[in-house]
Design brief:
By secondary structure, this protein is α+β, with helices and mostly antiparallel strands. The protein has 15 helices and 16 strands. Helix 4 packs parallel to helix 10 and helix 5 runs antiparallel to helix 8.
Length: 420
Amino acid sequence: MDLNPPKGFRDLMPNEALMMEEVCSKIAEVFRLFGFCTIDTPMLERLDILRAKDAIGEEGKLIYEIDNGELGLRYDKTVSLARFFANNRNLPLPFKRYSIGKSWRREEPQKLRYREIMQADIDILGGENVYADAEVIAAASSALEALGLKYIVKINDRRILDASMEKSGVPKEKRGEVLHAIDKLDKIGLEEVSNLVIEVVGKDKAGALLNMLALKGSNDEKVGYVTDSVDSGVGKQFAELLGIISGYGLKGKVEVDFSTVRGIDYYTATAFEFWVERDDIRSAIGGGGRYDRLIGMYGGREINATGTALGIDRILDVLEFSKSAKHTYARCVVCTIKPANFAYALKVSKSFRDAGINTELNVSNRNIANQLDYANSLNIRFAAIVGDTEQKDGMVKIRDMVSGSESVLEIDDAIALMKR
């Protein structure tokens, strides 16, 4: 019998699961700081709901179908948000929501890519475009900063690529292929992308677009090129967005990157990705953009929409969470010299817990040496040892498992010590 999880899924050890909880908690705290509320939607959706998004993408290939093809596991949380909003039209606008949870994608697993994924999403429905885009980028960036990550925001406006192809005479039926090619730039390089684009539309029609992709220089220079040579209106809006983002004082670098495409048929304007770069890893850990057509697919009017998702699994791998030394939330373990001390140990544990100290109580028949080894193995800071003497005097012996120092204290003093 194979006891390993299915391909593309993974078990998490206690230290890994604990770190995942803490990462998600820090991210949620930042999202709440920016005024995002939360909702809860099912992990299962009807297939007709999930497949409605097929009109602007290929996500239908990713669905895990169940229940005789009537239901499917969600492959992201944006579809559920769109359905929820279409079903609750009385929500105040702009509607700012965050959601942290799992989704499932039936794709080929590879490094940093799994079939069961944990994501942290934020979206703004009904906001003014440049302000909402900037707010989403800033909130997600601030979450990465709270985790101590160094990041780069690569940002583009899909309308720039559309305008460039329009001016060059690229047929509409060929533009999807061109965007697919551009989306590979980070993996295969500009030369190979150029060859692919030329193969699709020919050298004459590809020239201006490829020249734009090869542009070097500052953000101002790149946006200036767009304003002067591609689309002045889009260029001015893009410049405005970048100016607003700079007002947030983000620690990460914001870089205009015309190859940032993301969902080929999904995003309608702004598109961006969050990247981390280290000596041993270079990966996108999140991304998003503007998707103004999606809400209307579920009935009713179209509405401005923008959002992003941070990939928790990738963030955890970047943080090397498997090396985390923290295995438990317990700050103290109450140890007993012998079974006759258990009732008093229980009283001590209750006092600690009532004071807000995460406390583990010994429930084994192991000797005191083994109990202390157990505390060490979980990196629990304090051991509270109770024997006949402590029980008789109403005291507790506190051992600092880091320094090895011991103090016999009253329970309230022991609480004060551990809280310090």
